[in-house]
Write a structure and sequence with these properties.
The chain is an all-alpha fold. The chain has eight helices and no strands.
Length: 176
């Protein structure tokens, strides 16, 4: 279909995406990081998807993509599973655990900013899970890299500052 036909089409079109050349991968990674920092995670996501079509194992593109997806938590919940799948596909065991922690921490942030009843309990659970991933990553941590310590401390401070706690157990006998 040409552009004139697309303008007249009644249905949403399916496009054949244009391929990215191998020479364009490094500059595209820089652009993806740039758009993430400009708070345009959807654009960064699209760029990373193009990179991964051209180089399916590009670890940096996977990391930027999962961060871009997690930037959209709370807006598009369908992004969570994709982000977790990408984290699990990372080759480096430390990176896998670290980014799974990031994903859980960002779920916590989304829950904490939600006005849904019980979302503070959800946030607490997400932060604890993130902290667990950070502790596991710290066990295999490359020397001189304290990123997991900083992230773990951030989660701990959020829990303390917001006085988050575990969800109370339901006691159905109280209602009988």
């Amino acid at each position: 279909m040409n552009l004139q036909e697309l303008k007249k089409a009644e249905e949403s079109p399916a496009f054949n995406l244009k391929p990215l050349s191998q020479d364009a991968i490094a500059p595209a990674l820089t652009r993806a990081e740039h758009y993430r920092l400009l708070n345009q995670p959807g654009v960064a996501e699209s760029i990373c998807l193009d990179i991964l079509i051209a180089d399916k194992d590009n670890q940096k593109a996977k990391i930027i993509l999962l961060l871009s997806l997690s930037d959209q938590f709370g807006q598009k919940q369908s992004k969570a599973k994709m982000a977790e799948d990408i984290a699990n596909s990372l080759k480096d065991p430390y990176s896998k655990l670290y980014y799974l922690g990031i994903i859980h921490e960002r779920h916590g942030n989304t829950s904490l900013s939600s006005s849904n009843p019980g979302s503070d309990f959800d946030a607490y659970e997400w932060y604890l899970e993130a902290m667990d991933f950070y502790e596991k990553a710290d066990e295999i941590n490359p020397s001189g890299n304290d990123d997991v310590v900083l992230r773990w401390n951030t989660c701990a401070r959020i829990i303390m500052d917001n006085k988050l706690k575990r969800r109370p157990k339901d006691n159905f006998l109280d209602f009988v």
